[in-house]
UniProtKB/TrEMBL annotation:
The keyword Secreted applies. Its main location: secreted. CDD domains: LDLa (cd00112). Heterotrimer of 3 chains: alpha (C8A), beta (C8B) and gamma (C8G); the alpha and gamma chains are disulfide bonded. Component of the membrane attack complex (MAC), composed of complement C5b, C6, C7, C8A, C8B, C8G and multiple copies of the pore-forming subunit C9. This is CO8A protein. InterPro entries: LDL_receptor-like_sf (IPR036055), LDLR_class-A_CS (IPR023415), LDrepeatLR_classA_rpt (IPR002172), MAC_perforin (IPR001862), MACPF (IPR020864), MACPF_CS (IPR020863), TSP1_rpt (IPR000884), TSP1_rpt_sf (IPR036383). Residues 118-347 form the MACPF domain. It is found in: Secreted; Target cell membrane. It is a multi-pass membrane protein.
């Protein structure tokens, strides 16, 4: 016998719209076999997104399958007098071969060098923190960052550097229970694709302050906040004797936790939350002769000459609709003071 599940009844407001389930189209036919990939692809479309609590779709919009091509892979075009990276076909200048830098992702430009102990003259320079955010693509339709467009690790043989200036790393000293800035000077190596990169130490003219009666109200406010910034850090710093402090409050992309948060779950404790926007750097990318990330280079080579919706839609899904040409790095800095309300009343 065949037993069918009984339909479930659920209550909803009379004026609320009925749930709409997600719906996908049927799979397209398989593409021809791409000889260089030895893969074929197919796709399907999103016909109806889930709405009003309806069921979400499962599975992928694209599929690929191994295949045997009937034609030979011709490979990427040659590089003439320049050197061609073995894995991706990227062309680099001959003076970059055996220079101590890995200018090809597979390291083929540093293979079979006469001097096997070549060291890069720029090894003392540090990578710029957060530079990977500037090289990513951006999908303006979904407002999401996508995979790299620029290559953040290609330097073109240059040792151009950026001085940290007034920028210092904020650290917590566990022994002294205080926040402080490191004093060491740092020099960061500027990738080739960056025309300009400058560290800043700018904040808005002032903080916005909010007071919360207890930890529950504060936690609810933090959970409800949404941030489009790259990330931000919350510090709990020292004050006078009426302020109780505890370190370790770190956020990223608008989400975070506070260590030992339950110790503040008392009626006599309140919280002051100060918020400001901080600019940490500004940048401008090259406009000419940019060097693409090797993954996007391979993806461009794989696109068919004849338009195929599935293949081109997947490229946009992977790398976005736009890429950055200039901008400002930064985020939101929050500072939370833990206040003893009884002591405040006495003062």
């Amino acid at each position: 016998p065949l037993f069918l599940p009984l339909p479930r009844r659920s209550s909803r407001d009379v004026n609320s719209p009925a749930p709409v389930d997600c719906r996908l189209s049927q799979w397209s036919g398989w593409t021809d076999c791409f000889p260089c990939q030895e893969k074929k692809h197919r796709y399907r479309r999103l016909e109806q997104p889930a709405q009003f609590g309806g069921r979400r779709c499962t599975g992928h919009l694209w599929e690929e399958q191994a295949c045997r091509a009937e034609t030979e892979c011709t490979g990427p075009p040659g590089c003439g007098q320049d050197f061609q990276c073995r894995e991706t076909g990227r062309c680099i200048k001959r003076h970059l071969v055996c220079n101590g830098d890995t200018d090809c992702r597979d390291g083929s430009d540093e293979d079979n060098c006469e001097d096997e102990d070549i060291e890069s003259p720029c090894e003392h320079l540090l990578p710029i923190p957060g530079v990977e955010k500037a090289v990513q693509g951006y999908n303006i339709l979904t407002q999401e960052r996508r995979q790299n467009i620029y290559d953040p690790e290609f330097f073109g043989g240059f040792c151009e550097y950026v001085y940290n200036g007034e920028w210092r790393e904020l650290r917590y000293d566990a022994a002294c229970e205080r926040l402080h800035y490191g004093d060491e000077e740092k020099y960061f190596r500027k990738p080739y694709n960056f025309h300009l990169y400058q560290f800043l130490a700018h904040a808005d003219s002032g903080f916005t302050f909010e007071f919360y009666e207890d930890s529950k109200d504060l936690l609810e406010a933090l959970k409800s906040d949404k941030s489009n910034s790259i990330g931000f850090t919350i510090g709990i710093g020292p004050g006078s004797g009426i302020v109780m402090v505890h370190p370790g409050f770190t956020f990223s992309r608008g989400k975070g936790t506070l260590k030992n948060f339950t110790q503040y779950d008392r009626k006599e404790v309140g919280f002051i939350r100060a918020v400001t926007k901080v600019q940490t750097a500004r940048f401008k990318m090259r406009r000419d002769n940019i060097v693409l990330d090797e993954d996007v280079l391979l993806s461009l080579q794989d696109l068919p000459d004849t338009y195929n919706y599935g293949m081109y839609a997947k490229f946009i899904n992977d790398y976005g609709t736009h890429f950055l040409t200039s901008g400002t790095m930064g985020g939101i800095f929050e500072y939370i003071l833990v206040i003893n309300k009884e002591e405040m009343r006495r003062k």
